[in-house]
Amino acid sequence: MSRIATRFAALRAEGRGALVTFLSGFDPDRDTSLAILKGLPDAGADVIEIGVPFTDPMADGPSIQRAGQRALKAGATLPGILDLVRDLRRSVRDTPVVLMGYYNPILSHGVARFCADAADAGVDGLIIVDVPPEEADEVEPHARASGLDLIRLIAPTTDEARLPRVLGATTGFIYYVAITGITGTRSADYAALAPAIARLKRHTDLPVAIGFGIRQPAQAAEAAAAADGAVVGTALVDTLAATLDEGGRATPRTVDAVLDQVRGLAGAVRAARKAAA
Fold first, then answer.
1. How far is the CA of 45 from the CAs of 18, 36, 95, 97, 157, in angstroms?
2. Which helix (H) or strand (E) holds 269?
3. Smallest Cα–Cα separation from 80: which of 43, 133, 31?
4. Are 60 and 182 contacting, i.e. CB atoms less than 8 angstroms apart?
5. Distance CA 19, CA 273 (A)
6. Catalytic residue numbers?
7. Considering Cα of 72, then 73, then 79, then 85, what sign does the dihedral take?
8. Superfamily of domain 3-276
9. What's the pLDDT tens digit per position in 9-65?
């Protein structure tokens, strides 16, 4: 099994959901980014998502857009992100790593070459925001050949007729977008999550992680109790940004502030299923 499947199976056996963390690679600089990423597993992250900065991030809210701009200013490129993952894998062996980004840099790199390079670097899965399942054949064969999971975003607006097609092109886990709109702009309606997840589970055995709009430990706990995991990104990016100096540079507080927040989120996610029981 892939690292992603292995991790979700282990968590299911433990009776708890996953904490999936998102941060933009190279934000605010390569060394600080790598230090945070290396610390995530011990802080309680079960899956690490790394954002690939892009100049036109249409699904990202203001916080993640600014993170991407800081990363690009720090020299982030797609090959640079893959090199960052290689360095991460020197110490983080078992935690799944997912790259989240947009198709243009992948297309410029060459799809087949990118998938092979990503797998060689230690990447386990891809979330390509702007490639719909109807165009999956541009990426899916190359991802499969390289052993990469292709993770799909499913929104509240995805209807029953389209759902089988979306799920049919998905491996690893499903990323359920809890709100309509861009990241980090508002919170989810948690009362509506349980029936939405139940609808997905009628169509697939894949794990479901809920993202977009999760900022507080209590919200992460609700999401992890309703599904198989919670994805937290904007809240972590905002914490990182709040520690930077006036020039946007890391300070001695930056790494610890993010990892302390992850510990709080992880504790809430781990307690969620116990509380429900």
1. 8, 11, 8, 11, 29
2. helix 254-276
3. 31
4. yes
5. 13
6. 49, 60
7. negative
8. Aldolase class I (3.20.20.70)
9. 999 999 999 999 999 999 999 999 999 999 999 999 999 999 999 988 877 889 999
Q: Which residues of 127-138 are buried (b: 16+ CB within 10 A; e: fewer)?
A: bbbebebeebee
Long-range contacts (CB closer than 8 Å, 24 or more residues apart) made by 105-110: 105/52, 105/54, 105/77, 105/78, 106/78, 106/139, 108/78, 109/78, 109/79
Structural domain spans, the chain: 3-276
The 10 Å Cβ neighbour count of residue 1 is 8
Give the pLDDT confidence of 111-136 residue by residue, as tens digits. Answer: 999 999 999 999 999 999 999 888 88
Instruction: Please state, in angstroms and rounded to a whole number, the distance separating the CA atoms of residues 68 and 53.
Output: 5
Cβ count near 253 (within 10 Å):
14
223 Cβ partners below 8 Å, 6+ apart? 17, 178, 188, 190, 193, 210, 214, 229, 230, 231
Q: 212-244 burial, b for 16+ CB within 10 Å, e for fewer?
A: bbbbebebbbbbbbbbbbbbbbbbbbbbbbebb
Q: Which residue has 């900065």 as its token pair?
A: 53
**Does residue 31 contact residue 209 with C-beta atoms inside 8 Å?**
no
What is the per-residue pLDDT for 179? 61
For residue range 212-238, list pLDDT tens digits in order.
888 999 999 999 888 999 999 999 999
Please give the sequence-ordered ranges of beta strands (E in DSSP) within 135-194, or none if there are none: 149-150, 152-154, 174-177
pLDDT (tens digit, 9 = 90+) per residue, 49-84?
999 999 888 778 899 999 999 999 999 999 999 999
